[in-house]
Every structure is written in C-alpha cells, then in structure tokens.
Amino acid sequence: MKARLFLQRATVSSLLALILLASFVYMGVNPGMLFTEFHYVVDLAGSMSPPHFSLLWMDKTIAFSVLETLSMAFLGTLAGGMLAVGCALLTAKDTMPYPWIRGIARFMVSLVRVIPSLVMVLIFVVTVGLGAFAGMLTLVLSTMGTFGQLFTEVIEATEKAPAEAIFSVGATRWQVIRFGILPQVLPSLTANFFYAFDVNVRSAVGLGIFGGGGVGFQLFLAMRVLHYRDAFALICVIVLLIVLTEKLSDGLRRRLIGRGRHRQHTKLH
To answer: Where in the cell (predicted)?
Structure first.
C-alpha cells in the first residue's frame, strides 16, 4: 500500500516538474537574466529618484485625475453593486420562483464575470472614447459580475423561518423579501459594497493605463515620455491613495459587521 502511494506521488511530482520545465522552455524563461539584466532596474531606479513631488501642486490636472479615479470607483461600485443586488434577487431560489428567469439572470452574471476587465475597457474605449466614462462602465460590469454571484449565495444562506412566517400570514412575495430577507442580508451587502469600492479603486488605476482616464492615465503618459521622476511621484500618490482607501474600507466594514453581530447577540438574549 505504501509503495503504491509512493509511486502515485512520484508520478504526480514528475508530471508537475515536466509541465513546469516545458512552460519555462516554451516561454524562453532564463532565471539568470534576473542577475545579468538587474543593472537596468538599478538604472531605472536612479532615473526615477528623487521623485518630482513639486509636480503634484504645480500641475493642477494631477488633483483632478485623482478625483476622477475616485469618482470612477465610487460610481462603478454604486451602479454595479445595485445591478448585482438586482441580479441576485432574480437568481436566488428564495426570491425568484420561476426557474427560467433564474436561468437567464444566472447566465448574464456568468457571462459578464468571465470577460476580463481589460477586454471590457478596450471595447468601451472604442465605443465611447478614451476617458473616465469608459473606465466607469467597465467597473460597473465587473462589479456586477463579481458580486452578483456572491450576493446570490448570501441571500440563499439566510434563515428560512422569518420569510416562511411572513408568507404564512398572506404577505406578498415582495413583502417577504422586504421584511423577511433584506433585513438579514443588508449588513453583509453593505460591507461588501465597501470591499467592492476598495477593489475598484485599485482597478480604476489599472484601467486608466489602458485608456480609462484618471491618475493611471497620467502615470502612463509620464512613463511614455520618459519623465521617470514625475512617474515616481505619481506612483507615491497612487500607493497613498490605495492605502487610505483600504484603511477606510476595512474600518467601516469592521464597524458594520461588529454592529450586526451585536444586534444578533442582543436578539438572542
């Protein structure tokens, strides 16, 4: 038995090693280049130092681009989150009794979720042009696809007893959703909205490099014209922006989730 187990593990390990080696050969990966070409990284770091921080208050468009990135993330989160909630209500068995409507809604959410964000932004750049609007539309769809499935699972995991009790006294389906399901899922949905905003701020910076506008597009322009000190200053702004957004999002989610647990604890006692 032990010999058979050893043979299975050795076969799996050998196959993984062969796949890894074949991938390295196919991609032309040469680990030695990390050392022989490292001087280019040192040269780039020298070209970027010191960062040109005075650019941040000399160029008025920088502050505008930061606000543009935050606006993209906020509007993308709000619109995408609302669409995700709507799709979840159409997809969950607890809120939608018709299987064919659930199937259509589930297909739409799955279709949006499998399209990469970079492909979406390229499509929107072609259709609506360069700028923040293309980035915002991309965030709307990506948020809907990502959180639509998550919200469906949250709704289906709710306790059935409150909804069944309301339904048994003659309430309509909407009243069951309004008074039996939404109060249970609202803290989780709101906490996920804050998390989605945190994720979308990072995504908005990346989408800007591909034509989505905002501070990411400013970084792309600085790198393209070889203004590396300007680029380093913009990278510092982006890092600070993401750290502050993450701290704010984490703090609000902890407070919200803690308040929800406190309410549950109060009800139990």
So the answer is: Cell membrane
